[in-house]
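Predict the holo structure. Ligand: adenosine-5'-diphosphate.
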Amino acid sequence: MTLLLGCIADDFTGASDLANNLVRAGMRVVQTIGVPAGPLGAEVDAVVIALKSRTVPAREAIEQSLAAWRWLHAQGAGQIYFKYCSTFDSTPEGNIGPVTDALMDAMGCDFTIATPAFPDNGRTVFKGHLFVGDALLSDSGMKNHPLTPMTDANLVRVLQAQCRRTVGLIDYRTVAAGAEAVRTRIEALRRGGVGIAVVDALSNDDLLRLGPALADLPLLTAGSGVAIGLPPNHGLAPSAQASALPAAAGLRAIVSGSCSQATNQQVAHFIAAGQPAFALDPLRIAAGEDVEGAALDWAAPLLAQGAGPVLLYSTAAPDSVATTQRRLGGMEAGALVEQCIAGIARRLVSLGVRQLVVAGGETSGACVQALGIVQMQIGPQIDPGVPWCHATSDDGVGLHLTLKSGNFGSEDFFTKAFQVLA
Ligand code: ADP
């Protein structure tokens, strides 16, 4: 098989976001959960390896990413794509910078780009500054993220603080001038000793212009947006059959551990529509109460009666998250809630849930691991960045699954998702 593109994603929802963009642009894509043990059976154009490396210590993120690269390299991947969040989610130590440095070292590569731009989802980069909708990143909801609060929108500065190589900029004027201008700029930056360039992009047209200019770079680092410009480099065009999945059946549920603005609105919208929802309290989990058991006792009879999707959520507003974090510690609260939600997801599947929405990147990672899922076929898009997938659990159960990054999806996502599948 000729693997055109080998991708390393730093979280699970990010991986399906990238896979979604590649599928829509005509590539056949498999997403794997972690590094596969052996070669893939399937004939595909791209593999996206989903890691859970966004918020682990930098040393571990590097180890995981290099293991993924070694596997992709062994499969003959033509180009490597390191995918991170479109809001550049990282701590002051990384892991975007350290992983980029490590991949460049391993690949013997002296230049790459960095751009989280994803205009379809309102993420644009202008003069190196990241905007979320109309707001600078640092004025967006991301300033309150439980694990990776983003308080600086200047990506050249943010990335430079995390990596060894010199960070530069390819600005919107160069991108607007087309692929040849970008190539010329890359050469100039390279000669000037710049190893990584943040790239402005304001629209899909910018990303499509960028595609051919990036064809010869061995390594790309980006959000999912850059992916839309790459399949044309291989003569591929959009095709509907790339996203076909088996027919959906079985019970429906949603678990949500995301505390983003978007997810808070989606939870509120679902509850306001009179749909069944159960709140998970982190302080009760920490106190040793059987919150998982209580949640299942609530959900089981509703599912048995055939009630329409049930929602179990720890999603909370920033002040409530802050209170919990003061009491428990940020990472500790996160891990506790993730484990509880992952346990709930597993038991929901035992009860017959076969259509599962998971909200939250870290939360998705925990759920997918708890379900023992190792590979997912990418299907139709629900909202930009969020496709339905089909996967088989380690119990041999086939289920439809969607992993929603916290910031993604319209207000009615939790009902719309099931309509898309129906
Ligand atoms: P997103 O995609 O919105 O970033 P994540 O799942 O990646 O969502 O991250 C949210 C983090 O917040 C997880 O670690 C989750 O366990 C944690 N969390 C969820 N609910 C709460 C809460 N009520 N208080 C504190 N932390 C929480």
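Residues 330-350 form the longest helix (21 residues). Residues 146-147, 257-260, 263, 282, 314, 316, 321, 324-325, 333-334, 337-338, 360-363, 405-406 surround adenosine-5'-diphosphate (CB under 6 Å).
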